[in-house]
Amino acid sequence: MDFDILIITLIFVLADLLSGFSAAVCLKDVSSDKLRLGLWHKSGFIGLIALAYGLEVAARHADLGFDVPAVAMVCVYIIITEATSIFENLCILNPKITASPLGSIFKNDDRAETAEKLEAENQEDNQ
After folding, report:
1. Reported confidence tier of residue 68, pLDDT bands at 50, 70, 90
2. Containing H/E element for 89?
3. Predicted pLDDT of residue 112
4. DSSP code per residue over 19-46
């Protein structure tokens, strides 16, 4: 098994946790309940990787005649999911990102709209 994909996946998971917490701070919406729920979701991803690894080991012992790249497929799914979440969080941290072609996908996100309003209020206060 290629451990690089596991490390890359864990980096994306940690980056999502960090960007999500930063977005919550930006929105003044830090909540232990939301953090706990996010950690449960992340532990589910880790469990999914463990299950995929178990399937790979079982497939080797069952001698199916081919490899089952379950861990790699699961890691790719997790990386795509986390990258999307990180991008959403970045749109909250910098609402100008929502004006980009990719950002327009997330423009209807309530949190991004709230961040835009907070940024506008902060600009008004600074003038």
Report:
1. confident
2. helix 70-93
3. 66
4. HHHHHHHHTT---HHHHHHHHHHHHHHH
User: Which residues, 6 or more positions from 86, have their beta carbon under 8 angstroms from its beta carbon?
Assistant: 12, 15, 16, 19
Per cent of the chain over pLDDT 70 is 85
pTM equals 0.80
CA distances to 12, 53, 70, 72, 73 from 2, rounded to whole Å, are 17, 11, 12, 8, 12
Vertex 98, ends 125 and 123: CA angle to 5°? Answer: 5
Token look-up 């999914």 returns 48
Cα separation values, 23 from 27, 85, 90, 127, Å: 6, 11, 8, 24
Q: One-letter amino acid identity for 91? A: C
